[in-house]
Amino acid sequence: MTQAGGRTGRDESAEERADRMWGDLIQEVRVAQTGVQILFGFLLTVVFSGKYDHLAHADRVIYTVTVVLGACATGALIGPVSLHRIVSGRRVKPRAVDWASRLTFVGLFLLLATMSASLLLILRVATKHHPAVVWLVAAVVAWYVLCWYLVPLWVRRRHTSR
Hints:
This protein is mainly α. It has helices at residues 14-46, 57-87, 93-126, 132-159, and strands spanning 2-3, 6-7. The two termini are 16 Å apart.
């Protein structure tokens, strides 16, 4: 569809748009699901290693919080699949896409928290609690926030037509 020589958007129905957006969302979720599931699986094995018994109390707390965050991230990122399966054929795809998008956003935030907590724990143990670890983790979190949120928001703001 064009107007005054410029493209104004896709010529698609609401159902077609929901189908396209659903396909895009599921592709995005697949990438995030794989990462969070590998990270979560790895985290689950830590408690069974011999070194776990020698962790400081604070490191055990960080580990516990990290595992819970990983479990929550996994749930939120698998949620869109369950949502789709349960509402499929009910003619609610546009609303399902909205809810799945929200779950994915929450899942990505929880994945950010899980990765940050994992990095904190690993670096604390690897450096024997060096004080610079907190600053290094803060820098990595800032990098994640820049890549995952600030750049996309900037692109959206700069390039979305009004």
